[in-house]
Design goal:
Elements: E1 5-11, E2 14-20, H1 22-31, H2 33-47, H3 68-97, H4 101-115, H5 117-132
Antiparallel strand pairs: 1-2
Helix pairs in contact: 1-3, 3-4, 3-5, 4-5
């Protein structure tokens, strides 16, 4: 297996090696397939909430779009996101440590307390991006520039 993405994380005083390649990314997608539909629905649910208000006047209520139901669903949605990343960390730790998911859940909770869950998610995203990138492969050679290819507009 090529080492596309490998990092070391210290949790509760112990070092753990996180490893991810394309096989791991596919496994994560497999184990999160049913939740992925819920994540798509989540994106739609919060899309309107995150739109920038262009007009603010003296009668504008800053909380008009934010109900208690929305806040409750936000907490449930955060739990779902946590479940997805626990599964990814299970896969990240499995190659080197063969840990059961119950142990990974404990470690993820401890790591969240030490680093914050947002940092764990950032690290996981970074590793997925690295695993999806062929630039990290050991056998990747320097490629020539394809001059006929027009630059993309962002």
């Amino acid at each position: 297996m090529k080492e596309f993405s490998k990092e070391i994380i210290n949790i509760d005083g112990d070092d753990y090696t996180l490893f991810l390649n394309r096989k791991g990314v596919i496994a994560w997608e497999k184990f999160c397939k049913s939740e992925n539909e819920k994540v798509k629905q989540m994106k739609d649910k919060y899309k309107d909430l995150m739109k920038e208000r262009t007009e603010i006047n003296d009668n504008t209520n800053p909380f008009e779009d934010i109900s208690d139901e929305l806040l409750d669903s936000l907490d449930k949605d955060q739990e779902l996101v946590s479940v997805l990343y626990v599964r990814l960390y299970w896969i990240l730790l499995y190659t080197e440590h063969k840990l059961p998911i119950s142990k990974v859940e404990e470690l993820y909770k401890k790591a969240s307390e030490e680093y914050g869950e947002d940092k764990l998610v950032e690290l996981a995203i970074q590793m997925v991006e690295d695993a999806n990138s062929e630039r990290k492969a050991k056998d990747t050679k320097e490629l020539k520039n394809l001059t006929a290819l027009r630059p993309r507009k962002n």
